[in-house]
Amino acid sequence: MTRKATIIGGGVIGGGWAARFLLSGWDVAVFDPDPEAPRKIGEVLNNARAALPALADVPMPDEGQLSFCATIQEAVQGAEYIQESVSERIELKHRVYAEIQKHAPKVLLGSSTSGYKPSQLQEDAPNPGVIFVAHPFNPVYLLPLVEVVPSAKSDPQNIETAKEILRDIGMYPLHVRKEIDAHIADRFLEAVWREALWLVKDGIATTEEIDEAIRMGFGLRWGQMGLFDTYRVAGGEAGMKHFMAQFGPCLEWPWTKLMDVPEFNDELVDLIAGQSDAQSGHMTIREMERIRDQNLIGFLRVLKERNWGAGKVLLDHDARRRAAVPDPSADSAAPLVMAHIQVLPGWIDYNGHMTEARYLTASTDTIDAFLGHIGAGMEYVAAGHSYYTAETHILHLGEAKLGDRLTGSVQVLGADDKRLHVFITIARNGEPIATLEQMLLHVDVNAGRTCPAHTDVLARLMPIADAHAALPRPAGAGRHIGQRKS
Amino acid sequence: MTRKATIIGGGVIGGGWAARFLLSGWDVAVFDPDPEAPRKIGEVLNNARAALPALADVPMPDEGQLSFCATIQEAVQGAEYIQESVSERIELKHRVYAEIQKHAPKVLLGSSTSGYKPSQLQEDAPNPGVIFVAHPFNPVYLLPLVEVVPSAKSDPQNIETAKEILRDIGMYPLHVRKEIDAHIADRFLEAVWREALWLVKDGIATTEEIDEAIRMGFGLRWGQMGLFDTYRVAGGEAGMKHFMAQFGPCLEWPWTKLMDVPEFNDELVDLIAGQSDAQSGHMTIREMERIRDQNLIGFLRVLKERNWGAGKVLLDHDARRRAAVPDPSADSAAPLVMAHIQVLPGWIDYNGHMTEARYLTASTDTIDAFLGHIGAGMEYVAAGHSYYTAETHILHLGEAKLGDRLTGSVQVLGADDKRLHVFITIARNGEPIATLEQMLLHVDVNAGRTCPAHTDVLARLMPIADAHAALPRPAGAGRHIGQRKS
Q: Is B228–A210 a contact, with Cβ atoms under 8 angstroms apart?
């Protein structure tokens, strides 16, 4: 049965939560008295649909059902998880919790609050044990971090269940063990924000100069290692103690105005808003959102390729989902579907189609999966043997577009102990859009020359080759360039 | 004549500067009394050689000459630029400057200081007008940011010349208009560092939890947009003023301990060093450097693909260098060398060779350059016409490895008003390692069908086709898969 989440409070944050749950296959009920809520959430959802699937390398679940409810009572009906993202006013949150717990007292209730401690949220609640902080970061549908903060009154088992649910929607729950105002990350953001206000107010730097000072330097570092690991590396082999001996004394220096809070008056607001307009007023917010999302997708895919940081979260998430994709049966007399591929934003060329090189990537994914299937995968290569591609013929029959879901299937045209002749079909909804005929040679990697494949590999390959010998030869096989279609 | 830079003070920062200059074709003379300096700089240089070229899409200049000098007098001889990266002690810097300016009083003298103001550096100097702050960020050979800070005594023309030199080595000089302790970026780092020390000291979070709170969330954002642009987007269409109205009141909240400085004693140092060991002690610093560099290369290439932020700096840098690469002569009876390609770390597969898809990328780069050459480039596509690839035949003749410099050349095998039949050779040192035969069709993009090319395009294409008709037909042309080599 489809699982259901309730989102209390729409807007950018609530919309981001709704998108994560929906795109993870959950049904979502939204309560927000703002008549604009469906439009606002719809916009966030559209952004998310163009972004989150670009991070997956296994097929996404079917999207859940989105509904808008007139009352909290209706919205929490049958929900397994409730996320509250209303304005940062404690009395409002308390009122909302009282109403929620009148109808669903036992359901997990996370709050997106960036400032309040869970013990403050729990005050006067009918069932404080299910209430906790689940503080996400914008854009919620792309950034994995969610700070999960319990209080002493929170039931530890509830917190573990909540973390499992957050992982299910692809997030990285950071368990904050001691509650504190603003949790962890926002304390840093607040510190930087204050200092930035001073720099602008005193005319040291404009908003644009400050942004460049961040994104051209330490901002790039912090997307992949945090503060301490970055300094650990900077300290070199002498280690963290050495680094701190150097850096420690700086704390005594007058390098910060943070002892003090700038007066937050209209003049400062106008100064900053004016500089921000001069910096980025030539772009709409929608354009900037798209740029931001595409950049973040790029960063996250880089980290995923390296199984590092946020990329490890994505790989683990894929692994959980992949378990649900069935393995092809080995001896079937049909081409083997070995890969499921979704066309990503970064794969699109200036014609608006998938770039040519990506057809070969799709084919490589297909063949790699096939080689893994016959026991000639990564471990086989590490042990010194591999199949190298000697020759490839690509025939383009259609054009893949953004978001298309493709399959890659393999038909073995011929095989002996050294040669593997395959025909790969990249298809969309069963219709081929490209075919790739390849000749692979089995090599001794160290010697750099062909040699017979291991008998275990041949024992798995040959029954497939025999079964496929009964299949009709594909029309595209054996062509040379420019040959008329038969 | 080769330009020369002098590096005073080795170590991680001085070594990074040396690497940037050397890999940009400058000769570099280093002065550092530490007998370990050559080893330390050599290690940084090895890292840089494996990293910086991965950001370039035009050939790098030949590496300059590195020399180590016994005296400052010898090191500054003939230098056009001097960069000082000695310890952060003002009296040491003053002593070094006095010695430098005894022998090279007029040469630009940048300091890597993270804390001192240029006016402090200039005190008692024989020629203060050439002295300024040029504060880089580790790893200096990858991160583009350098804060250039003059004082009132600095000659503005000198500062402009210095910025030009820093651009020449691929950096982004951020001109800090008013001098201030710690410039801009390090004020933020200092603020975050202080807050982090409190969180660790009070047992709220470990170094690892803090690092995750950064790199899983806002750190990813800050690699591509800074503080203000990020909040501008978060504010939505209501704009920056609206965002600030929400955020402003938080400044009154007790969300920071930054009013106060934690006591920096041995206990705190041990606590942090111990947590850092638990977090990352399973990796050597060298391993972490490689991981960091590969991640940064990935991020920077993502931004380069999008011509955004630090990626725009890289594209502009390429454009300056590309101007030096000669255009092929159009009517020569020889295949046209249209692309210069360097094999990047991210292009290597688990066999240690360039991945198959990258041969097609190299070929696409070659053909795109050729299409631009005959007037069928991006603008032609934007106007509604394009050449689509119908078919490709790839023949692998060798294996490209990390760092290899390849050329992509085009031989036109045949052309009419709708068809373009080409043979592309990817070569290393003139030896083909792959050939790609392609049939391209000229299409009306909107109608989605073939049509004759524009007469201007044909007027440039046909003379090349005629000239190439005299060339011998390549051995690999017209093959089908598995055909025996003739």
A: yes
The answer to whether the Cβ–Cβ distance between B305 and A298 falls below 8 Å is yes
Q: What is the pLDDT of residue A255?
A: 47
Helices (H), A169-309: 185-201, 207-213, 219-222, 227-235, 239-247, 266-280, 285-305
Measured between CB atoms, which of B210, B253, B364 is closest to A115? B253
- CATH code of A329-469, in short, is 3.10.129.10
Question: Given this structure, which CATH class describes domain B328-469?
Answer: alpha beta
Query: Which tokens sit at B50?
Result: 């494996």
| CA trace torsion B155, B159, B164, B166 (10° rounding) | 140
CA R_g for chain A:
27
In this complex, do A184 and B437 lie within 8 Å of one another by their Cβ atoms? no
pLDDT at B345: 64
Separation in Å, CA of B260 to nearest CA in chain A: 7
The domain A185-282: what is its CATH number?
1.10.1040.10
| pTM for the full predicted model | 0.81
What is the greatest pairwise CA distance in chain B? 82
d(CA A356, CA A361): 9
Task: Express each pLDDT in A63-108 by its tens digit.
Answer: 999 999 999 999 999 999 999 999 989 999 999 999 999 999 999 9
Gap between the Cα atoms of A484 and A395, Å rounded: 12
Look at residue B257 in the predicted model and tell me its pLDDT: 46
User: B353 — alpha (psi -120 to 50), left (phi > 0) or beta?
Assistant: beta
Mutual angle of helices A310-322 and A285-305, in 10-degree steps: 80
pLDDT tens-digit series, residues B182-233: 899 999 998 898 888 889 888 999 999 999 999 999 999 999 999 899 888 8
Nearest CB to A174 within list B213, B228, B361: B213
Mean pLDDT over residues B110-123, rounded? 95
The Cα of A2 is separated from the nearest Cα of chain B by a number of Å equal to 29
Closest by Cβ to B233, choosing from A219, A285, A482: A285
Closest-CA distance, A104 to chain B, in angstroms, reads 31
Contact B219 A222 (CB under 8 A): yes
Does the beta-carbon distance from A187 to B195 stay under 8 Å?
yes
Mean pLDDT of A198-212: 92
Residues of B in contact with A197 (CB under 8 A): 251
Asked if A228 lies within 8 A of B218 by C-beta distance, the reply is no
Q: Which of A213, A234, A296 sits opposite B138 (nearest CB)?
A: A234
Is A227's CB within 8 Å of B214's CB?
Answer: yes
Pairing between β-strand B431-444 and β-strand B385-396 as defined by DSSP bridges: antiparallel
Q: Give me the mean pLDDT over the A448-454 stretch.
A: 94
Measured distance CA(B439)–CA(B412) in Å, rounded:
10
Q: Which of A119-133, A379-393, B36-50, B277-291 has the lowest mean pLDDT?
A: B277-291
Residues of chain B with CATH 3.10.129.10: 328-469
pLDDT digit string (tens) for A133-177? 999 999 999 999 999 999 999 999 999 999 999 999 999 999 999
Query: Residue range A335-346: average pLDDT?
Result: 81
Q: What kind of architecture, by CATH, is found in domain B4-175?
A: 3-Layer(aba) Sandwich (3.40)
What residues does CATH 3.10.129.10 cover in chain A?
A: 329-469
Domain with CATH 3.40.50.720 in chain B: 4-175
Q: Answer yes or no: do A209 and B478 touch at CB < 8 A.
A: no
